[in-house]
Structures are given as C-alpha cells and as structure tokens.
Prior knowledge:
By secondary structure, the protein is α/β, with parallel strands linked by helices. It has two domains: 2-120 and 266-320, Alpha-Beta Complex (Quinone Oxidoreductase, Chain A, domain 1), CATH 3.90.180.10; 136-259, NAD(P)-binding Rossmann-like Domain (Rossmann fold), CATH 3.40.50.720. The chain has helices spanning 41-48, 112-132, 149-160, 172-181, 194-201, 219-224, 269-284, 301-309; strands at 2-6, 15-19, 29-38, 57-58, 62-70, 82-86, 95-99, 104-105, 140-143, 164-169, 185-188, 207-212, 226-234, 256-258, 292-297, 316-320.
Amino acid sequence: MKAVRVHQAGEPDRLSYEDIPMPEPGAGQARVQIEAAGVNFIDVYHRSGLYNMALPMTLGTEAAGTVDAVGPDVGGLAAGDRVAYVLQLGAYAEYAVVQADRLVPVPAGIELRQAAAVILQGMTAHYLAHSTYAIHAGDTALIHAAAGGVGHLLVQVAKRRGARVIGTASTPEKARLATEAGVDHVIRYTEVDFADEVANLTGGKGVQVVYDSVGQATFEGSLRCLARRGTMVLFGQSSGQVPPFNLGALARGSLYVTRPTLGDYVAAREELLARAGDLFAWMAAGELEVRIDRTFPLAEAAEAHRYLEGRQTKGKVLLIP
Length: 321
C-alpha cells in the first residue's frame, strides 16, 4: 500500500510517498481503509523533529474510513463499519491499523470526509470550552486564529455556551469568516495591537479566558488581555514555542496558565465517545459548521504541510488516498 513516511526529520521535502507492506491487525485492533486523513500541526511537529519520534514513521494521527478487517478479541466492530479516530499514528496511508477501543462510530448522514475534518479539531474545541476552561454564559473569550481549523469550531462551541467572543484574524477574508462563525468583535492583529483593542472592547476589564494556538507571537499580549483570575489556555504554537517566563508575572491579577493536550481529555473511552457524540449530533442538527478548506492527494502531503505552515488555512486540510 501507499503511505507517507519520514526517515529523517526536517522540512516538508523530507516526506516520502512510498510503498510499504499492508499492516495486519493484531489482538484488540482493527484495520481501517482510509477515506481521508486530517493534516494538523502535530504532524508538522512530528515531521520537523520538534517532537522526538522514533524513525522511520508513517505520519498522521487523525482519519476516517471503513473497517476492513478486525483482529482477535475485538467485539462490537465488523468489516464495513464507518469509523473515525485520533491520536493513533499512521493515518497518512491507504490503510491503518488502529486500537479498536480508539475508533469512534460515524453515524449515518455524516460524510466520512466531514468526520475526518472534525474529529481532532472538533474534540479539541469541545474540551477547551467545556473542560480546560468551562465557559459560563456571560463570559468574554478571546480566540486567536478565529478563522482557522480549531478556531472556527471553537468560536461556535463558545457561542453555544453563551460567551461573548473576541477573535483575531490576519486578513479581511479571515475576518469575514470569523464573523460568519459567530465572533462578536474581530481584531485584525496585523494592523493594531490586539491587547489594546481587547482593553478597549472590555472597558479595561479584560477577558475571562484566552484560547491561544499561536504561541510565541501572541503569548505575552494574551496575558495582558486577561481579567482578574483569568485563564490563559495555550494549546498550540504555530508561530513557535513560548520561551521561559517568570511565573511571578501571573501575580498581576492572580492569573492561570495551562498547556492542555487532547490526549488527556479523551483518555477514557467514555469521554472520547461523549465528545465525538456531541460533535456529530450538532453536525446532524445543522448546529455546527465544519469547513473543509482544501484537500490534497496523499502523494502531495509535502505541499499540504507547506500550506498549513504558511498559515493560509481557512478551515480543515485533508489528505485523500
């Protein structure tokens, strides 16, 4: 079968589209024929060496498709079942072997490409707004990259929970998309100081929570945006890692900072199914828009990475075997 492999960490041209043996499911596993694989910044971190991974490896931690075969000791799953999954390596391929208890059933009426587009970023938005900082009605939230993959979904989830949302965007088109998603006030951070604008919009009080996936370029400004006892949620680093900083800075307002990851919020199968179930229910009811920005053939994974790293995305990027 075809797969995208990394033999040496580095730039996108390190990605190799090649033939590898078809994997066979072992005990407690299933083989999935991939319909679509999601492209995420964690894939960039794996490829570049920012996250130290054993090489060679097949990239990709998110996909949707159809069960092709099951191994021993697998119950409640059969060939032909439509499924999606996250946080299992090997999605940049025609087939992948996945732990069966990590597979989420995709309901009838939800397209597999839509499932692939929502399962990682959607569950990220879900845990951020429901668990990392549980938004209360009347809270004001600042969401960076509000038109991006996670941002577009997080805006919608935050609005469902009754938040007033301030979002940042870099271009007029992204500002429009953020507004369409439900952002109450869009800040063009390329033109103004976003922290000053947040102060103006909140009468100097600040926001209860900042959701920051940008990292280095926005971190200090984001702290300036927080209200007393506000929470800084750093869940990504698209602009680079945040350098060490003095924890004493949090004394200004008794602030909180956290660096969550999805794996800690879907470790239990019950939690995994609950979060995914909410997303699929909202999608089926027309209450959650999942926007696929671009699709690339699997063979063009390097180009998909360049597109993502260029911060051009306006929704989900998928690879299609």
